[in-house]
Amino acid sequence: MPQYIGTPMGVFLAVLGAILCGQSLRPDPGSEQARAEKAEHQLRVAETQLRRLQGSRIRADRQRSAEGARTVDLRLFPGRGPDLRGIDFSSSLESPPRF
Fold this sequence. Notes:
This protein is mainly alpha-helical. The chain has helices at residues 2-24, 32-76. The protein has a domain at 28-74. The protein has 2 helices and no strands.
């Protein structure tokens, strides 16, 4: 009985290997599948570039906001740097922020 199990198992593994090998081959150049793979690759590249640009834009927005706050502070209080001691935080917070 055990000798008969080896033959069907070998045939099954051979068929499975042939299917996997056939799927791993590249499609013919110019075929519909090749064009689809190329379009998917270009989409992944474009999405990566978009994420990188959005991240740099967020960092630039934060930097511009900080620079704008410094400019407003210098216009209101020329000749001295920013000082949080003159701001009343009692209406919005329990205690002043700690830096």
